[in-house]
Amino acid sequence: MVGTSRRAFMLATAGAAVAAGVQSAGAAGENGVRLVTFERKDQPGMRTGVVIAGDKVIDLVDAKKAGAALSFDAANMIALIAAGAPAMAQVRAVAAKPGATLALGDVRLHSPIPRPPRNIFAVGWNYVEHFNESETAQKTAQQNYPEHPVFFTKASHSMNGPFDTIPYDPQVSTLIDWEGELAVIIGKGGKNIKEADAMSYVFGYSVINDTTARDVQAKKHGGQWFKGKSLDGHGPMGPWIVTADALDPDKLHLQTRVNGVVKQDAKTTQMYFKIPRIIAELSAGLTLEPGDVIATGTPPGVGNARKPPEYLKPGDVMETEIEGIGIIRNTITSVA
Predict the structure, then answer these.
(1) Which of 213, 242, 314, 324 is in the most buried spot, having the most CB atoms within 10 Å?
(2) What is the pTM assigned to this prediction?
(3) Per residue in 293-314, pLDDT tens?
(4) Given 2.30.30, 3.40.50, 3.30.420, 1.10.287, which CATH number is that of 4-110?
(5) Beta strands in the chain, from DSSP E residues, in sequence order
(6) Which CATH architecture group holds 120-334?
(7) The dihedral formed by the CA atoms of 126, 127, 129 and 134, expressed in degrees to the nearest 10
(8) Alpha-carbon distance 336 to 325, whole Å?
């Protein structure tokens, strides 16, 4: 159980970051809905909610208790997503005539797809400049760009909240790196999805940081990526899901900052493999489920590629921001 002082600290930190996140999300389309998973200070347990008027949240659990026609489990984001278009119509109806609301800064936001999430898929080397700056590419005599997306997964315990701390354990890794990315949330299940149909399977978008232990990734376990990408808490996501009708995912500005200094600054137009291609290739022979998360790849500017290399250390504040969605802010915190 989180102590009272610790909870107060987290809420205060979240409140400041949420204010910035709301401002960043202002470019979202008029039809879009922002959905959160959160905890209240006065009641235990996870809840889903709708952000309205910039800084207010409708508690869908309370709305259902008050008589709102919600046919899904209002405490479970995956249940909402899996219920499809009818459920979203119900949510929009609640948002159009809100009753009681909560101040967004007074709740604790979790990842909108909280633990245990569905699958967390990720794409490697999806920005040409990031491929060129990678150690693998630099060691290759001829840099041939991939003909197919590079896929890997992150373990479920890597999922973390948008304003939660990221654990730093020097006995495991001292080379923790940032990788800001656009997250795609799958809205309906499917396999062998055609590229032309792929966008109809997208429920919405969020911000994710594929925080990576570079020494584990490169020097241990045969050089495979899974472990270095999957340390507990190394996948902060949020601050909410913006539904797919809110924005054009091909025209978003992404930044990662460490202690206020810009480290990554790119547009999603620079993606080598676009979202439809990613979904089509990932789903070939592999079933995608509602609530699955796809981290679509990071742009150039990672710490490992800098000269000299730069890595996160305890006390650092990492911010990941995507235009039209919002900001996540995570402090690196020693657990030793």
Answers:
(1) 242
(2) 0.90
(3) 999 999 999 999 999 999 999 9
(4) 2.30.30
(5) 34-39, 46-52, 56-59, 102-103, 108-110, 120-124, 150-154, 159-160, 166-168, 176-177, 180-186, 202-209, 212-213, 235-243, 253-258, 261-267, 293-295, 317-322, 326-334
(6) Alpha-Beta Complex (3.90)
(7) -30
(8) 34
